[in-house]
Amino acid sequence: MKKEKVFKFLSIAVMLSIFWFSHQDAKESARQSTYVKKQVNKVIGKGIKYNIRKNAHFFIYMVLGMSLLLSREKAGKREILEIVGFVILYAISDEFHQSFIPGRGTSFKDVCIDTLGGTSGILVVKTTAYTRNIYFYNESIVK
Q1: Read out DSSP for 61-130?
Q2: I need a labelling partner for 49 at 20 to 30 A (CA). Which of 33, 43, 99, 133 fits?
Q3: In this predicted model, what pLDDT tens digit does every residue of 32-91 receive, in sequence order?
Q4: Is the pLDDT of residue 137 over 50?
């Protein structure tokens, strides 16, 4: 189906983005984080404490979880478990990749944040479909 292809393309684009961000050395990554933090401070103010990097991990994996779910014909328990498993494996491979980048390292905490983000993306899609009674591909995605 056409919708599946669009979301498969989006999933691949998100995974390539994750790879690209992970491939930045420590200096470039810090520069990007500082820039984003300054932009966020302009919008929400400087009094709020947050961690740009951890939020970025969560939200990019949230988009990945959403796009992976929407790229499937069905969204039953088996498909959800497959997607969560894939998100976990991709998060582990991302941390492994970072171990080869100068100044970067691996973090089990990041894998947990990534997994939580991906799972949250799935929950957002499922909850939205359930509360809005949205049907995808002639069947409800809620099943």
Answers
A1: HHHHHHHHHHTSS--SHHHHHHHHHHHHHHHHHHHHHHTTSTT----HHHHHHHHHHHHHHHHHHHHHHH
A2: 99
A3: 877 887 887 778 777 666 677 888 899 999 999 999 999 988 888 999 999 999 999 999
A4: no
Three-state DSSP at 139 gives: strand
pLDDT, mean of residues 18-31: 86
pTM of the shown model: 0.83
| 11 touches 90 (CB < 8 A) | no
Return the bridge partners of 140, or none.
135
Asked whether the predicted pLDDT for residue 18 surpasses 90, the reply is yes
- Note down the domain range covering 115: 2-140
The structural domain count of the chain equals: 1
Closest CA to 106 of 117, 116, 92: 92
